[in-house]
Write a sequence for this structure.
């Protein structure tokens, strides 16, 4: 019997092919510890492991059972986000399960020597906001976390993907993962975005185009002039939702925008290290002539503010369109899925999206809760009042983002607008903490998943950008910033 | 993971087919934060019935489960394997297993072997004639033996090898530990470090 776990020495160096390579291939090749043979996976080194309270307890318990330490506590960092309340954070967490998960993480971090940013700490927040903000996320590294939205970190030109609890244990114990290489897909977005159209609209349009399974097995590389012109926050928004297209990861080639974002952050390289890093990072761009396994093209100039009407992120249309008729789908499965979605969402085919009245607006989540997102939201709501019937919640992605926003006076803008200004966490992105929709409530949300019950049992979610969330909060129906001008509602 | 070559102990004639993982462990138990201590959750619904086989004193300390076809179907929860293991089971013999359950079992050190359905029925009859009797599962010979009955079971070579060697996924990777250490030696100094706190 032959077991190929590569006891044969195999230098990773010698494996690097002499042909044009994609960004994803370059990062992969640089992390192969042992090359798998006979269809066995490669053993891939992990540079950065992010940990949170929900998917880690059994992994630590597994280590304890086997008497294994954490191999590299210095490449591991933990924070609390999914279960944490966003009000009265100094009081004990009311829900027992949530409290147990948080307390378990604290005990595990202590026992295994892992750095933890608990509730109340300035670096606490959504794990995917914390990594970049500390300067830990950088180009050319591998990042994993027991959370599917780890794809966010790909915005820096890192290879970043979500893993399951058994894999979390594997990384804690070995700092590696056995993995088979992913396929690559180029998503090229060329042209100039119109004012009011943002990164969120690009990714919602991409998912509507390729479908929620379209990216399965692929690493998506976002390219083209429209992507290049985005800020790091915008790129993170796009990579974040790669998983919603079924992809393992999303990536953007690092450039001056990336370097400028990383430079000077607490854990960014300094001095000679910085120079060496940048020199290397500049070599990571996909080579001219490198082959992708699949390619998709999008014309940025054609995009409009986008919104979902259904119960998966692929069920979206431009805001200027209407709720689709399930009869328009050829595939009977799609037809049935659309009908089920409309029933759940309580929508009639043909209803203009802009006539849909919402009960709540949620501004937050790892997709859109960084400082730039809050600024974008504030730029629209400043000096205005929200529609009376709408509840508006603004939740910063991390405690540090909250401080930054307050230093800029954004909290005042939100409060004068009539919005609730909360503490950092996943909040209403998922119904795991006190922030939830009531059954039947309809919400315009800057988060990433509109699954049935995602924001609370029976809640109805429309995914939107921060600008659309702001315009919707003002008008009380799904709206784009364009509607504010044309409707003459420019109160200022 | 413990090395397994021979498992000997009380065998349970489990006259049920299509035992899905929701039956093995209901969803309410998935909120726990440990990987052990699931013995109370195993077959929680069925154990409410005092006549359920695992409630009988002869089967208080079982080691081997002889089940009907399609064991472990449904949800992929690893907890199903943990619960069986925590209850004391070290091997499950069935004519057919769900793929994911079988994969999870192999990773967690629970032996799963397949034999023909008629052979399972013969074992059931034999075990029921003498409740609480022992069986012997020999992974080296790939046999399951109850009294005078002995059958060869199927298990894939790779899983068998891992169980014989006591290697879980992590154990397997750590066989390459020298390579990992060597790789770490060549990592550039600009790569991120979470410690010390800056
Ligand atoms: S904000 Fe939402 S999607 Fe992001 S990590 Fe938290 S729960 Fe997951």
């Amino acid at each position: 019997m032959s077991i190929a776990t590569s006891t044969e020495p195999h230098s990773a160096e010698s494996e690097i092919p002499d042909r044009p390579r994609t960004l994803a291939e370059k990062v992969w090749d640089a992390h192969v510890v042992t090359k798998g043979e006979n269809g066995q996976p490669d053993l891939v080194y992990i540079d950065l492991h992010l940990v949170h309270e929900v998917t880690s307890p059994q992994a630590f318990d597994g280590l304890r059972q086997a008497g294994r330490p954490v191999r590299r506590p210095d490449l591991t960092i933990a924070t609390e986000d999914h279960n944490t309340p966003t009000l009265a954070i100094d009081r004990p967490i009311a829900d027992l399960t949530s409290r147990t998960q948080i307390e378990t993480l604290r005990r595990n971090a202590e026992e295994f020597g892992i750095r933890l940013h608990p509730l109340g700490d300035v670096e606490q927040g959504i794990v995917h906001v914390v990594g970049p903000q500390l300067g830990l996320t950088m180009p050319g590294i591998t990042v994993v976390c027991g959370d599917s939205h780890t794809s966010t970190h790909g915005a820096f030109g890192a290879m970043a993907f979500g893993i399951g609890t058994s894999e979390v244990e594997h990384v804690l114990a070995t700092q590696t993962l056995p993995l088979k290489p992913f396929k690559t897909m180029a998503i090229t977005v060329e042209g100039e975005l119109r004012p009011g159209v943002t990164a969120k609209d690009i990714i919602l349009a991409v998912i509507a185009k390729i479908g929620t399974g379209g990216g399965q097995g692929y690493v998506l590389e976002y390219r083209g002039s429209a992507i290049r012109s985005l800020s790091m926050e915008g790129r993170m928004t796009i990579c974040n939702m790669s998983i919603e297209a079924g992809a393992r990861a999303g990536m953007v080639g690092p450039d001056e925008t990336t370097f400028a974002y990383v430079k000077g952050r607490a854990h960014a390289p300094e001095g000679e290290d910085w120079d060496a890093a940048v020199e290397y990072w500049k070599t990571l761009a996909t080579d001219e002539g490198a082959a992708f396994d699949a390619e998709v093209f999008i014309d940025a100039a054609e995009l409009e503010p986008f919104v979902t009407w259904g119960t998966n992120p692929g069920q979206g249309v431009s805001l200027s369109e209407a709720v689709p008729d399930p009869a328009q789908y050829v595939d009977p499965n799609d037809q049935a899925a659309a009908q089920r979605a409309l029933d759940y969402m309580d929508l009639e085919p043909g209803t203009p999206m802009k006539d849909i009245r919402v009960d709540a607006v949620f501004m937050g989540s790892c997709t859109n809760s960084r400082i730039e997102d809050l600024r974008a939201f504030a730029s629209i709501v400043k000096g205005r009042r929200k529609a009376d019937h709408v509840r508006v919640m603004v939740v910063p992605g991390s405690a540090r983002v909250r401080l930054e926003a307050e230093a800029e006076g954004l909290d005042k803008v939100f409060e004068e607008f009539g919005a609730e200004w909360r503490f950092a966490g996943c909040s209403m992105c998922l119904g795991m903490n006190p922030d939830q929709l009531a059954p039947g409530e309809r919400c315009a949300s800057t988060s990433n998943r509109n699954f049935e019950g995602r924001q609370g049992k029976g809640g109805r979610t429309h995914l939107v950008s921060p600008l659309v969330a702001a315009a919707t909060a003002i008008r009380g129906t799904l709206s784009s910033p364009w509607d504010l001008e044309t409707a003459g509602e420019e109160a200022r | 993971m413990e090395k397994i070559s021979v498992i000997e102990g009380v065998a349970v004639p489990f006259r049920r087919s299509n035992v899905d993982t929701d039956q093995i462990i209901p969803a309410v138990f998935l909120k726990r934060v440990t990987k052990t201590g699931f013995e109370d959750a195993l077959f929680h619904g069925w154990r409410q019935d005092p006549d359920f086989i695992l409630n009988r004193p002869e089967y208080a300390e079982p080691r081997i489960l002889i089940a009907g076809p399609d064991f472990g179907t449904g949800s992929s929860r690893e907890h199903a394997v943990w619960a069986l293991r925590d209850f004391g089971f070290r091997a499950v013999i069935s004519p057919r297993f769900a793929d994911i359950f079988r994969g999870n079992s192999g990773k967690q050190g629970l032996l799963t072997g397949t034999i023909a359905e008629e052979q399972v029925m013969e074992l059931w009859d034999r075990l029921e004639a003498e409740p609480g009797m022992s069986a012997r599962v020999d992974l080296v010979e790939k046999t399951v033996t109850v009294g005078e009955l002995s059958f060869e079971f199927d298990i894939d070579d790779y899983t068998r090898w891992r169980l014989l060697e006591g290697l879980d996924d992590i154990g397997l990777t750590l066989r390459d530990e020298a390579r990992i250490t060597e790789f770490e030696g060549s990592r550039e100094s600009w790569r991120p470090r979470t410690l010390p706190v800056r």
The radius of gyration of chain B is 20 Å. The beta strands of chain B are 6-14, 62-67, 91-94, 111-114, 134-138, 143-146, 149-152.
